[in-house]
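Quick start: what a row looks like.
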Amino acid sequence: MSAVGHAGEMRAKRVLVIKLSALGDFVQAMGPFAAIRAHHPGARITLLTTKPFVELAERSPYFDEVWFDTRPKPWEVAAMLRLRKLLRTVKFDMVYDLQTSDRSSAYYRIMGSPPWSGIATGCSHPHGNPERDLMHSIDRQAEQLAMAGIPVTPPPDLSWLAADVERFDLPERFVLMVPGGAPHRLAKRWPATGFIQLADQLGGRGIASLLLGTSQDAEQIEPILAGCSTTLSLAGQTGFADIVGIARRALGAVGNDTGPMHLVAATGCPAVVLFSADSDPALCAPRGAVAVLRRDDLASLEVDAVLAALAAGPAALRCAPSALA
């Protein structure tokens, strides 16, 4: 039997997994990564991803090697030829395309049409559900793998990722806040005034607010720091592993629909994730100890609603009695 059959898949010696971006999607693919590794215990598994996720993938227990895709434009001929050469370096027995984009599907032909799980036309293991784009990312990928002969996909798990966060001198009791997000999608952000009022409420109960973000989030973070004396910022100071390590110590987290909240949620930290009409939690919200609050316009989201959602979760059990009540 060839690698196209289920028994052949389990005997595959070389397996390629494709997952290019973005951070939230990459974290949600941790369950599929684990499922593929378990299904091919003796195979050499390669991940094709983009540069921001190479280190995280290399630290994971799922891959033997990691390649990164520069995602060259069609007119970048030299880069396209390098990518073509890379993809043809190995004759893979099975490919799992978890990106399922036009770009990743095009690699099916470039690689000579190997056994393939995805949506590439003519592939051996198509995800044949016409409603796939209406499914949550986690459910969609689990169904895709089931159609390829991998019946069980666990939830995302980052228990393997260790980080030394002592250098941050973290407060004894704190809630994480992720007030930023993609600079081209400002409607996905709860206004800074909301975070300031929430931090004031928490500060009055002896709980600090620790702000996470990048340099692109400065316009959102700086007013919060100026507006509440119990806020601290680690913006621009944390890598993916740091965020995971800090989240493990937090009482809870509140943030917009953005990548770091997926890292936080995957640790089991109780999280409140805020959605506007710009994104649909039914398709992409983190799962776990997560409460979702959605308003078409996040400017209308009440601080009391956020505080109540935070207090209702397991965070209330992980700190001093009534600390969030």
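That is the whole record. DSSP finds 13 helices and twelve strands in the chain. Residues 166-317 form a domain with the Rossmann fold fold (CATH 3.40.50.2000).
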